[in-house]
Amino acid sequence: MTRRASGTVGVTALVSVDHLVSHVFLLALPPLFPLMAGSFGVSEARLAVSVTLIFLAQFLCQVPAGELVDRVGGKRVVVAGLVLTSVSIGLAGFATAYWQVLACAFVSGVGQSPFHPANYALLDAAGDAASEGRQFSLHSFGGFVGFAAAPALTTGVASLADWRAALFVVGVIGVAYAGVLLVSLAPVHRRRLREVTTEAEADASSGSYLGSLRLLRRPLVAGMFAFFLLVTLADTGLQTYTTAFAVNALDYSTVVGNTALTGFLSVTAVFVLVGGWLADRRDSFAIIVGGLVWSALVLWAALALGLGSTGFVVAWAVAGAGFGVSLPARDRITNALSDAADTGKSFGLVYTGLPIGGALAPVLLGAVATRWTYVEAFVAVAGFFFVSAVVVFALRRVRP
Questions:
Q1: Please, are residues 74 and 118 in contact by the beta-carbon 8 Å criterion?
Q2: How far apart are the first and last CA of the chain?
Q3: What is the mean pLDDT of residues 153-159?
Q4: How far is CA 377 from the centre of its chain?
């Protein structure tokens, strides 16, 4: 019988690849919209509603998913979520009507909702405080690799066959990796729950949806929720509108805009690993404040100086360094918000700020760009980074 991974290295590797696969599913549909539009006789903009539905489902289900993680253990929930997401995306490849694509997208979002609470619960159960930052950095790095791999994978398969085959192949990959997790990953979180929680305590701590929301009464929990919302507004806004900003406001080509965005994401991914090393050695609050103030100031300076195309690409890449450094420190603080028996609820609640920010950013910043210009929209993006840093600076007074 295969020995299942229960140590820090094995669990971190398996969960980080799971994060990679989950991010592939988040971006599986958008690169295929130009090909799908003709099949259903709808615009790409209407197909983009599917992305909103994925975020909506995550928003609705992430807190209950965190509750479930703390009841039955992270492994069971994450495997079930991966299977649900994989099957729904695979079935989208067989859709014969637009509404079926939307339904599959929503179900995919339901399956996505356990990934953060379950993954972090597993990392917490298998790791220790001395290596937490590096564990979280590898997990975040896996997510960025997934974002980078998704367009290449889906469009590559579509070029060899069609968009339906691309979604089916991605779905098969997800189901296969769910099988890998089922066989290879030990139930480390469920063991931890048995160690730290008596049956009576488990009943009391599991509670209800409203019981989880009561965690927002804690200043640090409420503050980190606000932080996640604000920083996601900045990150999603930058990812959504960088190319449009380059073309419409700076008169550059789409190649320059896409290169700048790729530079931001690539440098972010590299500096996530640097941030993990720092988070294990330095104050997490100070790392976040320094990193996000850096990103905000670099973006503001780039907007004020009116750099050429090369300077624009370099500035976006340099801004990514500060954002990347902040991510492992962010996760260390979030992990400190709860006891071992409440890890799922804590991450499920705080990470709800991500789908809210992801859904609001395109609409809010699009409205700013329409009312004024893309320059003002990116002044706001940098402002969201800066205000996020201010929130974390204020939270230093209520740290555990």
A1: yes
A2: 43
A3: 90
A4: 22
Residues 168, 218, single domain; the answer is no
Between CA 203 and CA 206 the distance in angstroms is 5
User: Which DSSP string do the residues of 92-127 spell out, in sequence order?
Assistant: HTT--SHHHHHHHHHHHHHHHTTHHHHHHHHHHHH-
The last residue of one of the domains, among 207, 241, 259, is 207
Residue 324, domain extent:
211-398
Q: Give the pLDDT confidence of 285-323 residue by residue, as tens digits.
A: 999 999 999 999 999 999 999 889 999 999 999 999 999
Distance between CA atoms of residues 317 and 295, nearest Å = 10
The one-letter code for the residue type at 180 is V
Distance CA 237, CA 231 (A): 10
Total of domains in the chain: 2
d(CA 223, CA 77): 27
Q: Are residues 146 and 161 in the same domain?
A: yes
CA–CA dist 400, 394 (Å, integer): 13
- Bridge partners of 226, per DSSP, are none
pTM summary value: 0.85
Element (H, E) at 348: helix 343-350
Q: Is the pLDDT of residue 273 over 90?
A: yes
